[in-house]
Design goal:
Helices cover about 75% and strands about 0% of the residues. It is mainly alpha-helical and about 210 residues long.
Length: about 210
């Protein structure tokens, strides 16, 4: 039976890389999946990194090479680069918000069932674990820079343009609220529609 490739692996094949990069993606995914299994069995706080390494069949130093902290196992993924590339590929007559909105929905539509389950696991952990929520802001700041650079290119602006940073921050804030709304109300099946609604609201200039 043919193996299903992930969105990250499909993007990697299109955009850069060869076997070495794909192997790195597989190693990161193996570590994350082992961690999620253990978190479900033992709890997040009760799961040390050396136990995750053992379950993933790698050394603790390998885990730390890919993920400097345990929180990074949950918070780090390959999707920022994928979304940035997708934004650059969108038609130039689309606004930045529309371009990102469609790029996000296209990416979600490409997810396999396993990727979707993993994403929901990660989001539920972030919502539930205080240490992860505390670190999430750092990850969002990095994401804002990556996506802001892509949006700045579309508009012929500098990557550190103040207005670009404001727009990127507003988009990520809306995206986070949409995701947490679905988790809090146990409506994960509506996540794409809720994200679309949130970003459409931004596109319309926040009409209240």
């Amino acid at each position: 039976m043919a193996r299903t490739t992930s969105a990250a692996e499909r993007s990697a094949r299109r955009t850069a890389p060869g076997l070495r990069e794909r192997k790195k993606i597989k190693t990161r995914r193996a570590i994350r999946q082992a961690a999620y299994r253990l978190f479900a069995e033992r709890g997040y706080d009760a799961t040390p990194v050396d136990r995750i390494a053992e379950a993933a069949d790698v050394s603790p130093s390998t885990v730390f090479r890919y993920f400097p902290t345990k929180e990074d196992i949950v918070l780090t993924d390959e999707y920022d680069v994928i979304l940035a590339a997708a934004i650059r590929d969108r038609p130039l007559d689309e606004s930045p918000v529309t371009a990102l909105r469609r790029a996000i929905l296209d990416l979600l539509g490409q997810f396999t069932a396993a990727e979707r389950k993993e994403l929901l696991t990660r989001l539920a952990l972030v919502r539930r674990i205080p240490a992860l929520r505390a670190r999430m802001g750092e990850g969002l700041a990095t994401t804002a820079v990556t996506l802001g650079e892509a949006m700045a290119e579309r508009g012929g602006r500098a990557p550190d343009d103040f207005e670009v940073r404001i727009v990127a921050g507003a988009i990520l804030g809306a995206l986070q609220e949409a995701v947490f709304h679905c988790l809090d109300h146990r409506r994960v099946e509506d996540m794409e529609a809720t994200i679309d609604h949130a970003l459409a609201l931004l596109s319309r200039g926040l009409p209240l």
